[in-house]
Amino acid sequence: MQGMVRGARGVKMEKVVIKATKRDVAGKQVKAMRREGKLPAVIYGRHTEPINVTLDAHSASLALAKVTSSSLVTLDVDGTEYPALVREKQRDFIKNRLLHVDFLAVSLTEKIRATVGLNFVGVSPAVKDYNAVLVKNLEQLHIECLPSDLPENISIDISVMARPGDGIRVREVAISDKIRVLENPDTMVAVATAAKVEEEVAAVPGVEGAAPAEEEPELSVERGKKEDEEEE
Fold first, then answer.
1. Which helix H or strand E contains 182, and what residues bound it?
2. Which of 4, 136, 166, 197 could pair covalently with 174 via S-S, beta carbons 3.0-4.6 A apart?
């Protein structure tokens, strides 16, 4: 397809602030701290020495459940704010609780590189009306921008794909001019592929040279689905 994809955009979350306090405890004391409803974490970065902190497990878990690796959060450490990205979350899957969180402190005046997920929205006429199959070649984009311009995700409106064979390339994704996409601009993000139909045609009785039909003809169709719901 030619031109920019209408409806494609970067979605940003509201500011997320997580309160924290510096901690000195380690080892077995950390286990005791968890039993008291506290969550250990560490903050580190290019211009920040590692800081061990403690979060309230309940409120921090609720806040972190809404963020991704491209979500900018603000850590309020005893009154000092650190803009940061979540780099790693250690989880106890049996008890379904967080055990530890790593935060990467960033400078709001320096560009960073991050991976942002793609969210496919809308209904493709090629899929709905022509039974095409939506093939997603990319699920995320690598971008560079200032932390404050970092989108939560990038929405791709697939309604622009009208017929089988239509596709969306990286260069056609319309996002803020404050964001530089690091992918090859010719890379296909998604394409509406024509459904494959295989038919076994039974011979017509009474026609000379026709083979007898022992079974009913089978029709195998790979059908497309509506892509009208947002993906997580």
1. none
2. 4
What distance in Å separates the CA atoms of residue 122 and residue 132, rounded to the nearest whole number?
Answer: 15
CA-nearest of 6, 11, 4, 7 to 150 is 11
2 has a pLDDT exceeding 90: no
In sign, the C-alpha dihedral spanning 69, 73, 79, 80 is: positive
- Confidence at residue 118, expressed as pLDDT on a 0 to 100 scale: 96
CA dist 43 and 23 (Å) reads 12
Chain centre to alpha carbon of residue 169: 17
Of 44 and 26, the structure prediction assigns the larger pLDDT to: 44
Q: How far apart are the first and last CA of the chain?
A: 26
Number of C-beta neighbours around residue 12 at 10 A: 16
Mean pLDDT of the chain: 84
Between 199 and 103, residue with greater pLDDT:
103
State the burial class of residue 44 (Cβ atoms within 10 Å of its Cβ: 0-12, 13-18, 19+): middle
Global pTM reads 0.73
Q: Is 211 a residue whose pLDDT tops 60? A: no
Residue recorded with tokens 């803009």: 83
Task: Set out the domains of the chain in order of their start, with CATH numbers.
Answer: 16-105 (2.40.240.10)
Say which amino acid occupies 103. Answer: F
CA distance 225 to 6: 21
Q: Tabulate helix, strand, coil % of the chain (nearest 5).
A: 15, 45, 45
Alpha helices in 5-158 (DSSP H): 28-35, 57-64, 125-130
Query: How far out from the chain centre does Cα 16 lie?
Result: 19
Q: Facing residues of 50 across strands?
A: none
